[in-house]
Specification:
Layout (H helix, E strand, L loop, with lengths): L6 E2 L2 H11 L1 E8 L2 E8 L1 E4 L5 E7 L4 H8 L2 E13 L8 E16 L2 H16 L7 H4 L3 E15 L5
Antiparallel strand pairs: 1-8, 2-3, 2-6, 4-5, 5-8, 6-7, 7-8
Bound molecules: flavin-adenine dinucleotide.
Flavin-adenine dinucleotide (FAD) binds next to strand 3, strand 5 and helix 2.
Amino acid sequence: MNRRDLEITKQEDFRYVLEHCHSINVGMHDGEDIYILPMNYGYVLEEDKKLTFYIHSGKRGKKLELLRANGRISFEMDCDHQLIEGEKPCQYGYAYASMMGKGNAVIVEDVQEKQKALSILMSCLTGKEFEFTEKLTTIVEIIRIDVEEYTGKRRLAKRF
Ligand SMILES: Cc1cc2nc3c(=O)[nH]c(=O)nc-3n(C[C@H](O)[C@H](O)[C@H](O)COP(=O)(O)OP(=O)(O)OC[C@H]3O[C@@H](n4cnc5c(N)ncnc54)[C@H](O)[C@@H]3O)c2cc1C
């Protein structure tokens, strides 16, 4: 990374980005092309920095076809957008917090894991706890992303 001064290294700062972004851009293989989709997510960030995302989806569509063919993905997410104003054009900047990385996407079949994933997803999105019946898990697909590596950057609007 060129701007090491902006690099996120602390667990609490990664968690900040994960809690504030709300949507993740997932890049998938589409033959020789790349297919990128924005989606909401739930996440689990463990003490050893292991990161897992859960995404819910309808039962059909292009992303599921692509992921079944090749689960290798890249992702990016960003938040805290703010224009930093200056007197001259070269003094302008842009504040942000972002993460990106890569991993493997798996379509979850296990009912209990689907129930757990939906609860995590809803908790991350709403801050509330929900439980899901086995029947509800049959009407959605759950995509689990096992993240293998990730980095973060954060540029504050004001330095303090
Ligand atoms: C902020 C945000 C959060 C979202 N959260 C979720 C989520 O949690 N789960 C979820 O399943 N979906 C979510 N979506 C919708 C998601 O981006 C896809 O539209 C959806 O998952 C269908 O994808 P698909 O590959 O099955 O598309 P299909 O229905 O198979 O359609 C394929 C074609 O539709 C077009 N298309 C698909 N998605 C988009 C898009 N977002 N914008 C423009 N064109 C598109 C493309 O041309 C693509 O080739 C979210 C979208 C946004 C913007």
